[in-house]
Design goal:
This protein is α/β, with parallel strands linked by helices. The protein folds into three domains: 121 residues, 3-Layer(aba) Sandwich (Rossmann fold), CATH 3.40.50.10800; 96 residues, 3-Layer(aba) Sandwich (Rossmann fold), CATH 3.40.50; 79 residues, NadA-like (Rossmann fold, 3-Layer(aba) Sandwich), CATH 3.40.50.10800. It has 17 helices and twelve strands. The strands form three sheets. It has a four-stranded parallel sheet with strand order 2-1-3-4, sandwiched between helices. Helix 10 links the parallel strand 7 and strand 8. Helix 2 packs parallel to helix 16 and helix 4 packs parallel to helix 5. It is globular, with a radius of gyration of 20 Å. The N and C termini lie far apart (45 Å). The structure holds 1,3-dihydroxyacetonephosphate and iron/sulfur cluster (SF4). The site of 1,3-dihydroxyacetonephosphate has 12 residues, from helix 4.
Length: 326
C-alpha cells in the first residue's frame, strides 16, 4: 500500500522490521544520520522514554521544540503536543509515530462551537490549556500548561474577566488558588477525572506514611486528599527532592518509569480508577506509540504533522506569549 494511504487508514507505517534489529540502537543511529531528535512525554512506554533525547512535561517539551537545532523532531506524545512543536518550529519536520494518538480532552473543544461560545463573553480574555488543537489556540489570547497555569493567570490584572478551557478540573483548581472566577469550558481528561477518591482513602489508611501527589486534571475529591498538586514534571521532581519514601501517584502511571529509575528504593503506588476491576487509569493514546512505529517514522520520515501557514501563524502568538511568561 502507498505510504500516505496507509497512514490515512491506520495512522502509522506498518512496514515489517527485521526481528534481530536492536531498535534502540537503530533509532539513535538514524537520529545521528538525519540530525533528528526524539522528544517524549512521561506517559509513553518506558523503552521510548529511554531512547529519547528529552523526556518532559508539556511545557518542557514545547521549550525543547522551540530551541532545538535539529532538522527533524520525532515526537512521542499526543497530537496536540506535536502540533505545538510544529507551530514553534515550522521550518523543522515534525514526525509523530502514530498520527491517531489524539487527546480526547483537546478534541472535546471543537473550534466552531468554541467560537460561538466566545461571542457571549466579548470582554473576556481567552486562556486555553495547551491540551487544545491549533484551531483553538488560534482563537486564544494566551495558553498555559499545568505547570505554569497559576503564573499565567496571575500575570493578568485582578479584575480581568477570563474564559478558561477545556479542563474544568484544572480551571476550578486555579480559580480556587488565585481567587479568580474564570468562566470554565465543560471538559475533563477521562484518565484523571476517573481516579477514585474512595480507593484513595483506603490507600491512605493502609499507607499512612505515603504522600499523595496529584495532577491538577484530577477530580476535586482526589485533589482535596492530595499533599502536593503539580504537573508531571513537578510530581516527578517532588519524589526526587524529598526524603519521603512512599508515594501514591494520581497521574498516568507512565511517570513511574522515571521515578523508579531515579529512586528505585522508594515506593510508588499508582492510584486506581473508579472502576473496581481496573488497577490503573491509562492514557491509551500515549500508549499507541511503540518502538517499531518510532523506528518506521524516522526511517520513512512519516507521518508528518502539517498545518497551513496561516493557522500556524495564528496559533503561535498565544504559545509564545506563554513561553515569555514562563
Ligand atoms: P503535563 O503538562 O503535566 O505533562 O500534562 C499533560 C497532560 O496531558 C496531562 O494529562
Ligand atoms: Fe489527554 Fe488525558 Fe491523555 Fe493527557 S492523559 S494526553 S489530557 S487524554
Amino acid at each position: 500500500m502507498d505510504n500516505n494511504k496507509e497512514i490515512e487508514k491506520k495512522g502509522f507505517i506498518e512496514s515489517p522490521i527485521d526481528k534481530n534489529l536492536d531498535l534502540a540502537f537503530e533509532i539513535r543511529k538514524m537520529c545521528k544520520e538525519k540530525n533528528a531528535i526524539v522528544l517524549a512525554h512521561y506517559y509513553v512506554d518506558g523503552e521510548i522514554q529511554d531512547v529519547a533525547d528529552y523526556v518532559g512535561d508539556s511545557l518542557g517539551l514545547s521549550q525543547q521544540a522551540a530551541s532545538t537545532k535539529a532538522d527533524i523532531i520525532a515526537f512521542a506524545g499526543v497530537h496536540f503536543m506535536a502540533e505545538t512543536a510544529k507551530v514553534l518550529s515550522p521550518e523543522r519536520k515534525i514526525l509523530i509515530p502514530d498520527l491517531f494518538s489524539g487527546c480526547p480532552m483537546a478534541d472535546s473543544m471543537p473550534a466552531e462551537i468554541f467560537e460561538e461560545f466566545l461571542k457571549d463573553y466579548p470582554d473576556h480574555i481567552v486562556v486555553t490549556y495547551v491540551n487544545t488543537t491549533a484551531e483553538i489556540k488560534a482563537l486564544s489570547d494566551i495558553t498555559c500548561t499545568s505547570s505554569n497555569a497559576k503564573k499565567i493567570i496571575e500575570s493578568l490584572p485582578k479584575d480581568q474577566k477570563i474564559i478558561f478551557g477545556p479542563d474544568k478540573n484544572l480551571g476550578s483548581y486555579i480559580n480556587e488558588i488565585t481567587g479568580r472566577n474564570m468562566v470554565l469550558w465543560d471538559g475533563v481528561c477521562s484518565v484523571h477525572d476517573n481516579f477514585s477518591a474512595e480507593r484513595l482513602k483506603t490507600l491512605k489508611n493502609d499507607n499512612p506514611d505515603a504522600k499523595v501527589l496529584a495532577h491538577p486534571e484530577c477530580n476535586k475529591e482526589v485533589l482535596l486528599l492530595a499533599d502536593m498538586i503539580g504537573s508531571t514534571a513537578g510530581i516527578l521532581n517532588y519524589t526526587k527532592n524529598t526524603d519521603y519514601q512512599k508515594f501514591i501517584i494520581a497521574t498516568e502511571p507512565g511517570i513511574l518509569h522515571k521515578m523508579k529509575k531515579a529512586n528505585p528504593e522508594k515506593i510508588y503506588i499508582p492510584l486506581p480508577p473508579k472502576n473496581p476491576r481496573m488497577e490503573m487509569s491509562i492514557c491509551r493514546n500515549m500508549k499507541k506509540h511503540s518502538m517499531a512505529k518510532l523506528y518506521n517514522a524516522l526511517k520513512y520520515e512519516l507521518p508528518e504533522v502539517l498545518m497551513s501557514e496561516e493557522l500556524m501563524e495564528k496559533a503561535k502568538r498565544p504559545i509564545e506569549r506563554m513561553l515569555k511568561i514562563s
